[in-house]
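Could you join me in thinking about how sequence relates to backbone shape in a protein? We need material for that, and I hope you will provide a protein of your own picking. Once you have written the record down, we can walk along the chain together:

…
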Amino acid sequence: QEVLGEDKLMAILKERELKIYWGTATTGKPHVAYFVPMSKIADFLKAGCEVTILFADLHAYLDNMKAPWELLELRTRYYENVIKAMLESIGVPLEKLKFVRGTDYQLSKEYTLDVYRLSSVVTQHDAKKAGAEVVKQVEHPLLSGLLYPGLQALDEEYLKVDAQFGGVDQRKIFTFAEKYLPSLGYAKRVHLMNPMVPGLTGSKMSSSEEDSKIDLLDRKEDVKKKLKKAFCEPGNVENNGVLSFIKHVLFPLKSEFVVLREEKWGGNKTYTAYEALEKDFAEQVVHPGDLKNSVEVALNKLLDPIREKFNSPELKKLTNAAYPNPSKAKPAEKGTKNSEPENVVPSRLDIRVGKVISVEKHPDADSLYVEKIDVGEPEPRTVVSGLVQFVPKEQLQDRLVVLLCNLKPQKMRGVESQGMVLCASSMGEPRQVEPLDPPAGCCAGERVYVEGYEGGEPDDELKPKKKVFEKLQADFCISEDCVAQWKQKNFLTKLGRVSCKSLKGGSIS
């Protein structure tokens, strides 16, 4: 998408082949958008470049401890295996590549001294600005996040390359390197940037936003499910993650794309230019459903070799060890105390947008409804609620609600309830109750999160004895402008704030 230092690049190429590196911090699991840099690495090798791939393990720890220190080695091994599997999937010869880990040289005396030298000339403002689009931004940033851009700049010198390649989201780090490396007596490097593929929800594809990405090891049924929910409005080519994936991954790899259609809709059509496909989609000649189905088939062909490789017992064990399920952590033995208190944060709650499919009176309790709610799973959830005295049945039918999905199922008058509809409640008498309203345009299954807690996997099931929901619920409230909040932080979906109609200042239960 952009090149900084093109004149220097052309001057080097007149004398010899280019030495270039691409780095990745070993944090969350790589997703399908990683095929964008992988396909470009294939281009660099075909052009004769010497390519180094850096597994930036130390960077992963410095970025707000996205990778805990005890998991660094495991995460790095996972990344090394999965990146190599991706490259093999698209036919890139690994013997032409050099693989390096950050800690192989970043803990040396020379490198450490250069970190100190750099910190003596870099301002706090410039360090924070450089990492704004790459390092996780929090209310009270850690010093480690300010060090991150400097380390990435020094990597260019210590890897002895002419150029660094990365996403356009790293542009500020690249200009930071161009400004500060010469102050240490080191050469300014060339920087090449690939575009960022929008996620399935329309924003940047991110490891920390589950609905925005397709993991490299997702099962075929998960790929189908995620693509089915992906933003792909008829005729809309803006922020369309499905189209962008075709443009930046499938076309560069295959030089064509086949839209699969039934004969009654015109049969299959092969496109040899992306612009023609985009034009047909904009004019609604190509239907979103056909586009998604075609991407699903093409994507699974890329993912099949990776899934097969990671089906081995050794790599399954590595995956589980590098990304342990927090809800399956080994409990402390009886008679011993945990060294650290349990981390009770909103991201442990699996809260989703649901659509009420049907609602009936409970067969054994006139004061309860039994609702069938679509939350983006193959089967709707059965939910028992006490809304019968507050909301007429016909007003709930087809309504979007906010559902807590990972409570332990429990029977209520003989009917098992598989979730809880979150509602605003008035503080005074007579009591009033209103279901929370997701923003307009939301779909069943979309994640609801608390502002600042977008990352993190929810517990598989909230253990009743732990009272995680109850502890968090104590700080749930409705703001003066009717927005659902936890400790003054808003409940959000990707489309905006969760609210209620009128019960400002109320509680949430």
